[in-house]
Each structure stands twice: as C-alpha cells, then as structure tokens.
Amino acid sequence: MTGGSQRWREAAGAAEGRWECSLAAHEPAAVRGAVGWMRASHGAAKRAAAAQLLSPERVVPVARLCHYLECPPLLEAAVRTLASAVDAANAPSVLLLAHELGEPALERAAVGGILADLDEVEKAEYWLELPPLTRATLRTLRDATARNPLLSAGPHAARGSSASSPRELLAMVREALAEMRERLADAQLRQEQESDSGDARQRKTVRSLDQQAAFVVALEAYLRQEESAFAALAAPATPALTQAWRAGVAPPPPAVPPASPRGAFVPTYEWQTLPEAEACLPAGLEVELPLDGRPRRARIPPRWTVRVWLSDELGFWREAAARDTPCGSLRLSAAAYAGVAPSHVRLCYVNEEMEEMEVDDRWTVEEAQLFRRVSQLRVAIGAGAEEQEGSLAPHTSPRGTGR
Q1: Which residues, by range, are in coiled-coil regions (predicted)?
Q2: CB-CB contact of 62 with 70 (8 Å)
Q3: For residues 121, 126, 132 and 135, what is the CA-based torsion angle, rounded to 10 degrees?
Q4: Range with the poorest average pLDDT among 169-178, 187-196, 289-298, 319-328
Q5: Are residues 172 and 123 in the same domain?
C-alpha cells in the first residue's frame, strides 16, 4: 500500500527488502491508529479503525501522516471528511491545510465555505493566518461572483456561482460568453432570413434578440472589469493605470522607424493627410474619405484592440488600448487572462534588426509604437508559472491545526 512512496528509503545495512521512514514529526496517536488500520483485517475491523482515525480530534494529523506516507485510500477518506465539515469557523484553517497537502478538492471546499459566508469567516480564528493577498483575492472573488450576470442567465447560472478561483471564474465567463455570441449570431441570421413577415411573432423575436445582444454586451463589460480587478490583485506592489507607472527612469522608447521607400504610410494618433500616390496603409486605421474633394486623412483610432496569440489552449488575448495606456497595464491584463502571476509575463517585440526587445512597463502604448508593432508583439510566459500561481492556496507555511 505504501511501499511505492518516495518517503520510504531502504535501511542502510538492513536485510534485503527492509524499508524504513521517519515518523518523529507526526502525532504518536495518529501513527498508532494508522498502523492499526493497516494491520486490521478487511471488513468491520478495518471500518472501525478508519472511523476512529477520521474523528474530529484525529482527522487533521491523520491527513498529514497519510500525505507523508503517500497512503491514498486513507488520505482520500480524510479529505472527504474534512471537506464535508467545512464551516465559517474552520474554513481558513482548512484552506491552509489544503495547500499544505496539495489537495485541490479540499481547497475547493474551503474556498466555497469562505465565499458562502465571508462576513462570518472574517471573524474566525485563522482568518488572519491567511496571507494578505489571499484574503484580498477571496474578497474580490466573492464580490465578482455576486456581480456575475450569469447568475440570472438560466442554464448558465451554475457556472456563475461555483468558481473557486479567479482563473476558474473568468474561464467560466469566457466560455459562456463564447456560446452566447455564437447562439446570438445564429439567431440573428435566422431572423434576417425570415424578416419578410411583419407579424407580432416577428416583433417578439426582434425584441428577444435585442435583449440577448444587450446581455452579451453587459457580460463583456463584466469580464473586462473583473480581469482588471484580478490582475491588479496579482501584483499589489505594482501601481496600475496611474502616473505611478511613469515613476523612475524608464529605458528610452524605441525610435520611430523611417517610412518605407515604397511610400508606406507612418500612422500616428493625429489626423494626417494621405499622399496623393497610392499608399500602403496598415490595417486598423481610422480613415476619412470625403466626397467633397477634401484630401483623404487617416490616424490610429483613439481606442483600438491589442490582439496576441498565446497558445492553443488559451487562444487570443485581447485588450483595449489608447495612446496613453501604460504598457504595464497590458502586461497585467495578459497575466490575468493566462492565469499566471505578472512576474512570469513579459511583453516583447522583434525590432528592425530582428532582435527581441522587451516592452517596458513605463512606456505608453504610443511611445512603444504598439500599433505599428502589434504583428511582432508576443506575450512571453515563464515556464511553470501556471502551476505556481494557478490557485488561491496561500504561499506560506500553515500554522493552523485545522480546528
């Protein structure tokens, strides 16, 4: 049962097949009970031994012992017992224990208990044992869940209320939003094909489509709001969306490349007259084509969307940008979308010499010339970042006893 555990080692100088491990750090009563359970015959005797081990007084030290010995049957039983007993008083200590044991199911139960009654949980003995970032994230997740438009979205309501981490909540919203957009597009197409009739049924269909479209817009706004909120939490020491981004000495922004000899237009955020000769215009420009003989003009839109492919799993990351948007806020948004800590994310582009250059947080979108460089822009995510930062589990050693 435990012979394959990495905690065990072959005893030096011992007879072949003898293995040992140190249990000195574990409670003697838990050790004796676990040994008794292992030695008990199957049936009533084993069930009785397990019931004693899973009592409220022993279940926490038994869970720690079984985790150490890598004894899955008893550990799983202890985790189920703890998860079923989560309440406002013990939820913080259970969350600490879940991180210590690396048990996602127990963490999910603890977070669910905390979010269900956070006002009472904040009075619990071990609430202040949680790191400040974890406490702030739990509060933000509770508020985001309460605001979630999906709670009133019929078949999507379950998705809106069951998230146990920011990444899970945002993933649920993105998935539901994609489905709603697809269904709305299909419904609008059918409505256009059947638009000949002007009866009451047709008018009712139009009103329903308008309501669906309004809900999609509201859900998009909610998603942007919560992505920004969770991104700001992930790097509390980094000022966001303020002039503090500009504090200190930033590296000089990249120089504006010269226009192509073929007449490529160099866009700016100010209106410019287009040359008489046919010019090669970058995609996405705002262009004026007057019919009264005035010259044509073009500029970078006041607000446009940065769009970068991340991976097959994550797809495209998108974020609205203006000329004075700090590049650091884009990096935070990309980190929130990918579900990793901002410290694991870099924005880079390839310059004219084919060198990879990092985008400094203190540059604005205009200074970094991101509109011109968006096709060369990439989001570099550090190896292992997802595993290290993908949950609400605290990153400190728990001191609670699981009470």
Answers
A1: 170-197
A2: no
A3: -20
A4: 187-196
A5: no
Task: Please state at what angle helix 166-193 crosses helix 327-338, rounded to 10 degrees.
Answer: 90
Average pLDDT over residues 111-136: 87
Q: Helix axis angle, 72-84 relative to 104-116, nearest 10°?
A: 0
Handedness of CA 94, 97, 101, 107 (dihedral sign): positive
Q: How far is CA 329 from CA 141, 244, 332, in A?
A: 20, 12, 5
Cα–Cα distance measured from residue 217 to residue 223, given in angstroms and rounded to the nearest whole number: 10
Coil/strand/helix, residue 350: strand
Contact predicate 173/222, CB 8 Å: yes
- Are 349 and 378 contacting, i.e. CB atoms less than 8 angstroms apart? yes
> Across all residues in the chain, what is the average pLDDT?
76
Residues 54 and 153 occupy one common structural domain: no
Tens of pLDDT, residue by residue over 287-310, are 887 777 788 888 999 999 998 988
18 domain-assigned: yes
Question: Which is nearest to 99 in space by CA: 28, 165, 5?
Answer: 165
Q: How many helices (H) and strands (E) does the chain have?
A: 14, 10
Phi, psi of 278 (to 5 degrees): -60, 125
3-state SS record for 107-174: HHHHHHHHHHCHHHHCCCCCHHHCCHHHHHHHHHHHHHHHHCHHHHCHHHHHHHHCCCCHHHHHHHHH
Helix (H, G, I), strand (E, B) or coil at 335: helix
- The model's pTM: 0.51
- Which residues contact residue 13 at a Cβ distance below 8 angstroms, ignoring those fewer than 6 apart? none
139 & 160 share domain: no
